[in-house]
Write a structure and sequence with these properties.
71% of the residues lie in helices and 0% in strands. The longest helix is centred in the C-terminal third of the chain and has 34 residues. The chain is globular, with a radius of gyration of 24 Å.
Amino acid sequence: MLKTKTTPLSALFNVFKYFMLIGAAVISLLPVCVCVLTAFKTTDEYNATSVLELPESFFNFENFKVAFQEANMLRGFLNTAIVLVVVLTASVFIGSMLAYVLNRFKFKGNAVIQNLFMFAALIPGIATQVTVYKIMYSLGFINHLYGYMIVLMGTDIISIYIFLQFFENLPVSLDESAIMDGCTYFGVFFKILFPLLKPAIVTSLVLKGVGVYNEYYMSNLYLQSPELKTISTALYRFTGPYGNQYNYICAGVIITIIPILILFLIFQKQVYSGMAAGAVKG
């Protein structure tokens, strides 16, 4: 096996590369470490120590108990679970069926519609919130869980393009053979093509699911009643004009991370395969 000669320039480049990687890792992990340390500190201990100082005990779970009970996090998890199931199911079917129509049926305006989707993806969501809020208010969707879910299940541009890419890799001969055997267009989609979209579905579920689980702005805007709080807004209970109780907030943040971490560890193989398959074409 031939060994390449290390030059001073390549050695300097390697040092710089590892320095940047270590720096990026520290920047990414430092907030998590601070959150974990703060979660185990009492209120007096948090006020008297710096954020990087170790707590007196890592077996103090009082903050977690207070955060879970006072913020009603059980209700927040339940609301979030309902929203996730409904929104993700609807988004997968809406995105895949739209992609099926745009890819398989060539009609006037097809390219225009696809370009309009791309244009819509470039518009910041915050720029349309005034109009969306007026529509939501006129329809009576404010402070209702179903109204919030309808907003979230609106057309997901990224999912549509993921499904479009996968449909381009599926031969049209599958459709033609099924139609010749007497299958309808709905049958072609649900019986032939949809089962083949598993990698695209996994990719779409991961991207959309993370966004819905972490969504805060619209949840705080449209769900104002305490019993409608999602997990992302439940911890707002510990903020106020006279200060924020960060030890309880950090404990609650760790509680919210645990379910997603468990799901990721269980389904990481499917997540990686779906993301990799969605990243290549051909």
